[in-house]
Amino acid sequence: MTVDDTGSGTGAHPAPGGEPGRAAGPVTDAAPARAAADGEARQDARPDAGTGTRPNHRPDDRPHAGTGLRGDDRSDEGGEIRRDDHGGDTRPDTRPDVRPDARHEATGRVDPQAEPDSGEDPLALRLEGLILGAERRYTPFQAARSAGVSMELASRFWRAMGFADIGQAKALTEADVLALRRLAGLVEAGLLSEAMAVQVARSTGQTTARLAEWQIDSFLEGLTEPPEPGMTRTEVTYPLIELLLPELEEFLVYVWRRQLAAATGRVVQAADDEEMVDRRLAVGFADLVGFTRLTRRMEEEELGELVEAFETTAADLVAAHGGRLIKTLGDEVLYSADDAGVAAEIALRLIETMANDETMPELRVGIAFGTVTTRMGDVFGTTVNLASRLTSIAPRDAVLVDGAFAEELTRTGDAPASEAAAAEAAAAAEKEGEEPPSYRFALQPMWQRPVRGLGVIEPWLLARRADET
């Protein structure tokens, strides 16, 4: 059935007997006068005539062809369909050619805009209704107008969130309108500029898109294996998501609040306003050696397990020692830390942990220290590029750092300027009857070498002190 923007029917369903059904709204038969007269005559002849039937209804030659599925006399009931205790339709199935399941949301309400031949999977529509908690009501233009924003700005927000253009399909809900209204309200109140609001939408969309993909691919896929022979995955998916959805939603909000509190605390502790944006951080890359060759020899499933184990181990070590995992790139992870000693400890722990795992290839790490620009949870700048270059030239199972990082370790007392300086400090302390200084790390200068795009650098080899337990 074709519908217009108001939800009124403009077409007719075929009746079971092959005749076209009556369209909603005004009668459009070729002979309306004959149809009206015929209806009046039948009402006089039948004892049950006139009980809710329209003058153009023909109860003698076919059952009612539009119950609950057309914008006719059922539309005043809000599109509700009577259901039994198990969610089934209680009315007799008199319309075998109509597909009501393709036009129902998970709530059991009729979507007056859905085409019976739209081709959309009924289960997908039910799952969408369950997850979104609302039925489709708006086209993009209608949603933008209801939110009080221009279509241009609404499109910018939707694209930033990662949503595809849908033309003027009626696929948006009240939640979409509310999201637009909130973003636009932050801009109108002066809390965010329009550009910043778009960045908020983009960062949120990118992060949650990756989270949703991971949950479906790695989590729900395994849980929705049919538990019994003969059952399909579709029979398991809906009740499973119904149970998991509220729990996962609350957990997501909890983790986000925790992360937001931690990030806010780091920012307010910055020395000045300029440092809040462009901060001095230690940035480290950890890279699996020979990963390209591994991809040629290993099966896809084995390769996936190796990458997952590497990313999991790296994420756990970075978090446990106070760093922040910026992103994973399959065979490489990028992390940062406010303190050079923390970054050094993470790097050496990664090397030691991977070396003790026979299934893992060798690892190399590069770290640089300096000013870093942060945007949408990522880091940029010369310091990041230098850390990447140091990783590419680092020996296997070793850590290379730049001169600024070495100086920072020396300044904080985590490493001596040289072994000679460490010996002198120990001798002076012994002479005074004091405890000699304790250093966690050792630094060995390497040969200067040119690095593409960064000129000549002097890398340092980072290691643990021989007396460090």
Short description:
By secondary structure, this protein is α+β, with helices and mostly antiparallel strands. Helix content is 44%, strand content 12%. The chain is built from 14 helices and ten strands.
Question: What would you say this structure looks like, in words?
Answer:
The chain has 469 residues and is α+β, with helices and mostly antiparallel strands. Helix content is 44%, strand content 12%. It has helices at residues 32-45, 122-132, 140-147, 151-160, 174-188, 194-223, 233-268, 273-277, 291-297, 300-320, 340-355, 382-393, 403-411, 419-431, and strands spanning 278-288, 324-328, 332-337, 363-375, 378-380, 398-401, 441-445, 449-451, 455-457, 460-464. The strands form two sheets. Strands 1, 2, 3, 4, 5, 6, 7 and 10 form an eight-stranded mixed sheet that branches. The longest helix has 36 residues, at 233-268. The relative contact order is 0.05.
